[in-house]
Write a structure and sequence with these properties.
Layout: E1 2-6, H1 11-22, E2 26-31, E3 50-54, H2 60-69, E4 72-75, H3 82-87, H4 89-110, E5 113-117, H5 146-166, E6 170-175, E7 177-179, H6 192-206, E8 210-214, E9 220-225, H7 226-239, E10 246-248, E11 253-255, H8 256-267, E12 272-276, H9 291-297, H10 305-326
Parallel strand pairs: 1-2, 1-4, 2-3, 4-5, 5-6, 6-10, 7-9, 8-12
Antiparallel strand pairs: 9-11
Helix pairs in contact: 1-7, 2-4, 4-5, 6-8, 6-10, 8-10
Length: about 325
């Protein structure tokens, strides 16, 4: 089949594109590169079954043309990132909601299959753990991410509205925090795992005897290996066709303190860990109930966390070393 992936140059999008190509599909990527990067699809760009367009969903004529060309739409495009959410909350809301409206309005007319990748950030800050899909409307999201979390929650309302009025069902998935090879290691916008990997590797290389970690270390998170997430998205498309939202997660919860200790061990950092309690912990706990995905379409995460984390560290070290070697002498 021919597949359209909006946001396909992003972290999860590039892995999803690779998986679709491996299974014989033709893939079209639409990405404005506001958060994604051509580098993310560097290794698969030469595949003759991959085409990509650098543009946004705001180009409705192009988006309509691409929707017409494809049987399946994976909608991953989003305005995301802590800096963007804090500095541009209006843009965060508008981009996420309007982009999804464009996809649903075009796809519903042509009866295309649509999978929407949302986020576990939609859950209330004080939700009972593990987070269950039936508790989705309980409580307000963590304040820092609220514009993003509420906008992504609106995507479910949009999808269910199209189902009610037009008999059109888009699948709505809730992936938890992702990690893996190709993650975003930019210190200005990276999430916790890539940010800590970067700190640990830099400390080892420079001989530093301590690293700083934001918060108390007591907050907990759940992490899902990116390739497992891509497999879950495809499994939902192939074996699920209901309106109910579905969590995608590993079911494994780890404290930030234990995460940093494991990361230090895997990177060879033997120094001191300084937890800066003047910085926020964010949401106290996050772990998803993943039973619905297993029961409804037979998917569950397969990658052991230590194995996935080691693969991510190895990828960063290899690419970090290549980038450093490519810099001219004297360049910082």
């Amino acid at each position: 089949m021919r597949v359209l992936i909006t946001g396909g140059a992003g972290f999860i999008g590039s892995h999803l594109a690779e998986r679709c190509l491996e299974t014989g599909h033709e893939v079209i990527i639409l990405d404005d590169l506001s958060t994604g990067s051509i580098d993310n699809i560097r290794q698969i760009r030469a595949n003759p079954r991959l085409t990509y367009y650098v543009d946004s969903l705001g180009n409705r004529p192009l988006t309509a043309e691409l929707v017409d060309m494809c049987e399946i739409i994976y909608h991953l495009a989003a305005a995301v990132g802590v800096r963007l959410i804090v500095e541009s909350p209006v843009r965060t809301i508008e981009t996420n909601v309007n982009g999804t409206e464009t996809i649903l309005s075009l796809a519903s007319k042509k009866r295309k299959r649509v999978v929407i990748a949302s986020t576990s950030e939609v859950y209330g800050k004080r939700n009972r753990v593990p987070f269950r899909e039936d508790d989705l409307w309980n409580g307000y999201p963590e304040e820092t991410n609220a514009p993003y979390g509420l906008a992504k929650k609106m995507l479910l309302v949009q999808a269910q509205a199209y189902r009610q009025e037009y008999g059109f069902n888009a699948i709505y998935l809730l992936p938890v925090n992702l990690y893996g090879p190709g993650d975003n290691f930019d210190p200005r916008s990276s999430h916790v795992i890539p940010a800590l990997i970067r700190k640990c590797v830099a400390a080892v290389e420079r001989g530093h005897d301590s690293i700083e970690v934001w918060g108390s270390g007591r907050a907990t998170r759940e992490f899902l290996y990116v390739r497992d997430c891509a497999a879950g998205i495809v499994a939902a498309l192939e074996r699920y066709d209901d309106a109910d939202p579905v969590n995608l997660g590993s079911g494994m919860e780890i404290s930030i303190s234990d995460l940093v200790k494991l990361m230090a061990k895997l990177t060879g950092f033997k120094g001191r860990l300084h937890f800066d309690t003047s910085k926020p912990d964010g949401q106290p706990r996050r772990r998803l109930d993943t039973s619905r995905a297993r029961e409804r379409f037979g998917w569950q995460a397969e990658t052991d966390f230590r194995t996935g984390l080691k693969a991510t560290i190895d990828w960063y070290i290899a690419h970090h070393e290549k980038a450093s070697a490519a810099q001219p002498s004297g360049t910082l």
